[in-house]
């Protein structure tokens, strides 16, 4: 999975970089290679088609802090239009602990959010030399750490979930090469696969319905 994703990241950025390779961040605002970091609020919840809260009050969401890094490339497709590709790798503190006295469900069971990989593109519009607004979308793969027990036997595993992400944000130039920004994004995960540790066979892919809302602050450099 990671090898395929890494290849897709490289191909996406290279494809967009080729027609504007000679262009640097100094030629036009909000163009060139960029690297950055992000941190913000993370809310993950069971989707509407998987509502299991019909007989008792069960917690179906987890909240936490998302944090990670990103790399991207943007080029000018017009005086104010920008097109780009980006990839990010992030973690999250969102999770829920098993408690027999206070059962929780999160569509996926008792889980801890692990790493998230995102690969996608974006389209931006420069409203001033120091401000750009944009829309983004692409593929996301979220991994969860799972712990299940029947009181005697405990099984640990990983759950990989596939989905899509859409978002919108604003970016602000700070000096010649630095930038800061803010972004909202929504992710929908619809496929999952459980990878058990040890000799337990891995599970087959199955359907799921999980929603994710994130609001993050970003900061980085352009080259």
From TrEMBL:
Under the heading SUPFAM superfamilies, the entry gives: OMPA-like
Q: Which family does it belong to?
A: Belongs to the Omp25/RopB family.
| Segment forming the signal sequence | 1-22
Tell me what this protein is called. Answer: Porin family protein
What InterPro entries does the entry give? Answer: Beta-barrel_OMP, OMP-like, OMP/PagP_B-barrel
Highest taxon listed in the record's lineage: Bacteria
- Membrane-spanning intervals of the chain: none
What are the Outer membrane protein beta-barrel domain coordinates in residue numbering?
A: 10-223
Q: Where in the cell is it found?
A: Membrane
What does the UniProt keyword field contain?
Membrane, Signal
- Report one GO cellular component: membrane
């Amino acid at each position: 999975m990671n090898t395929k994703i890494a290849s897709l990241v490289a191909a996406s950025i290279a494809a967009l970089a080729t027609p504007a390779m000679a262009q640097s961040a100094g030629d036009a605002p909000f163009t060139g290679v960029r690297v950055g970091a992000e941190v913000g609020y993370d809310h993950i919840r069971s989707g509407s088609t998987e509502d299991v809260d019909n007989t008792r009050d069960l917690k179906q969401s987890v909240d936490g802090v998302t944090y990670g890094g990103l790399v991207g490339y943007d080029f000018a497709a017009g005086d104010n239009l920008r097109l780009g590709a980006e990839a990010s790798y992030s973690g999250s503190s969102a999770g829920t602990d098993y408690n027999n006295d206070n059962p929780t469900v999160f569509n996926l069971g008792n889980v801890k959010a692990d790493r998230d990989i995102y690969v996608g593109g974006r389209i931006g519009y420069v409203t001033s030399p120091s401000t750009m607004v944009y829309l983004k979308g692409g593929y996301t793969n979220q991994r969860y750490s799972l712990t299940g027990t029947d009181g005697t036997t405990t099984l640990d595993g990983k759950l990989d979930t596939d989905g899509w992400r859409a978002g919108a944000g604003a970016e602000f130039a700070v000096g010649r090469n630095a930038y800061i920004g803010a972004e909202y994004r929504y992710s929908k995960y619809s496929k999952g696969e459980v990878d058990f540790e040890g000799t337990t066979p891995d599970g087959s892919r199955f359907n799921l319905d999980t929603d994710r809302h994130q609001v993050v602050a970003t900061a980085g450099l352009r080259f």
